[in-house]
Design goal:
The protein is α/β, with parallel strands linked by helices. Helices cover 45% and strands 17% of the residues. Helix 5 packs across helix 7 and helix 9 packs parallel to helix 10. It starts with a strand and ends with a strand. This is Glutamate racemase.
């Protein structure tokens, strides 16, 4: 009954942690493609091929349902995967839709035409590849009209977080927020469109100001997954054991992940 959680690095552990709190009895297999991280500066074809290889590895672990806890993969590869590659007995889900549902206050499966919503000015902070894909704007347009989205590619933030350099990460976040506010001085809401960014949520909030509502993904994705599994229990795979896999150096990744989540995490070679 295991579910797979994939990310290019350790950022997806924020999603895994939230899912573990929401569904404590659900075995989770996490795969970080640390050998090829970060994805945010790669081409869409490269991201597609790497993501497919990772998802196949999670299927081999008995995870018929895989969550792409990587915004870059969700943005650059998911639609193509679902349309051309994923077999009928498997599911691959992304992290954008739960965020957009929360932002637009629409329930899952609400297929009514797009309508006006309360939030009109949205700041999107994401990797360069996610911003270039315009996937967030595309998904938002299915549900809402009249929403102005200003996207800021946050180069360097993921690298700084992965390297444990909190001072550099904070400085980069403030710089990116300032750059966005020059183009959109008064956003009503901000979307942290990368699973690494919740670790910097307080810095984003402080730089944006108290009047901006910050949407962070982990808890929204966990709630959405719980709802999905109630409706589709047959998508629970055959895997029974939780584990952490990496394409990188297991010892180094384990050390970073333990620091990242502040609890002992032990990775195995993928």
């Amino acid at each position: 009954m295991a579910v797979g959680v994939f990310d290019s690095g350790i950022g997806g552990l924020t999603v895994l942690d939230a899912v573990t709190r929401r569904l404590p009895d659900l075995p989770l297999v996490y795969l970080g493609d640390n050998a090829h991280a970060p994805y945010g500066v790669r081409t869409h074809d490269d991201i597609f091929n790497l993501t497919c290889a990772a998802v196949e590895r999670l299927w081999a672990e008995g995870c018929d349902l895989v969550i792409l806890a990587c915004n870059t993969a969700s943005a650059a590869a998911l639609k193509r995967m679902q349309e051309t590659w994923v077999p009928k007995d498997k599911r691959v889900l992304g992290v954008f839709v739960p965020m957009i549902e929360a932002l637009t206050e629409r329930q899952w499966g609400d297929n009514s035409p797009p309508r006006e919503v309360a939030v009109r000015h949205v700041a999107l902070f994401a990797t360069p590849a996610t911003v270039a894909s315009r996937a967030f704007q595309r998904e938002l347009a299915f549900r809402a009209i009249g929403v102005d989205v200003e996207a800021q590619p946050c180069g360097g933030v993921v690298d700084a977080i992965e390297q444990g350099d909190e001072i550099l990460a904070e400085a980069l976040v403030r710089s990116h927020v300032e750059a966005l506010k020059r183009r959109m001085p008064h956003p009503q809401a901000a979307v942290l469109g990368c699973t690494h960014y919740p670790l910097m949520e307080a810095t984003f909030q402080e730089a944006l100001g108290p009047d901006v509502k910050v949407f962070s993904q982990a808890n929204l994705v966990a709630e959405s997954l719980a709802d999905y599994l109630v409706r589709r229990p047959e998508m629970l795979g055959s895997g029974t054991e939780s584990k952490f896999l990496t394409t990188g150096d297991p010892k180094a990744v384990s050390s970073k992940a333990t620091q990242f989540l502040r609890r002992r995490i032990t990775f195995e070679p993928a």
